[in-house]
């Protein structure tokens, strides 16, 4: 987990079935804390036909276990990269971490549910 500490630049594309792609550009910061590492992401979300908006999210990392900022377990990052998932009834979140080009890495989420059908691709590089 220490390899993630610090500031990263994020470029993200969000492709939703039947809609134009959205883009996110910002930074993610992993900061050591007594709980593990706090992850905070901030940036601008741009969707076709809408004003750009500020977007942010927070997680807590304990080793490679990722928790929502309210303490609920989210998923475990595969140490060498690969696939994992999160079930949030009724939605299925599947993710692939790719570390082949470290210290640049990518994360791809495929989300399906009754009202969700999108793919989110993020590339992280050292800021």
Oligomer: single chain
Strand residues, percent: over 45%
Apparent shape: globular
- Mean pLDDT, all residues: 96
Instruction: Point out poorly predicted stretches.
Output: none
Structural overview:
The protein is an all-beta fold. The chain has a single domain (2-126), classed as Beta Barrel (Lipocalin), CATH 2.40.128. The protein has no helices and 10 strands. The protein has strands at residues 6-16, 22-33, 36-46, 53-62, 65-68, 73-76, 82-88, 91-98, 105-113, 116-126. It has a 10-stranded antiparallel sheet with strand order 6-5-4-3-2-1-10-9-8-7, with no helix packed on it. The chain is globular, with a radius of gyration of 15 Å. The chain starts with 5 loop residues before the first strand and ends with a strand. The mean pLDDT is 96.
Strand and helix layout:
Blueprint: E1 6-16, E2 22-33, E3 36-46, E4 53-62, E5 65-68, E6 73-76, E7 82-88, E8 91-98, E9 105-113, E10 116-126
Short recap of the structure:
The protein is mainly beta and 127 residues long.
Task: Note the main attributes of this structure.
127 residues; ten-stranded antiparallel beta sheet; mainly beta; 10 strands; Lipocalin
């Amino acid at each position: 987990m220490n390899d993630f500490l610090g500031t990263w630049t994020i470029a993200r594309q969000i492709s939703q079935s039947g809609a134009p792609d959205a883009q996110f550009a910002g930074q993610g910061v992993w900061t050591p804390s007594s709980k593990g590492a706090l992850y905070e992401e901030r940036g601008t979300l741009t969707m076709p036909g809408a004003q750009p908006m500020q977007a942010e999210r927070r997680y807590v990392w304990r080793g490679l276990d990722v928790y929502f900022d309210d303490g609920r377990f989210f998923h475990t990052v595969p140490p060498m990269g690969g696939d994992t998932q999160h079930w949030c009834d009724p939605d299925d979140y599947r993710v692939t971490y790719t570390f082949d080009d470290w210290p640049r890495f990518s994360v791809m989420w495929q989300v399906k549910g009754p009202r969700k059908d999108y793919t989110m691709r993020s590339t992280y590089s050292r800021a």
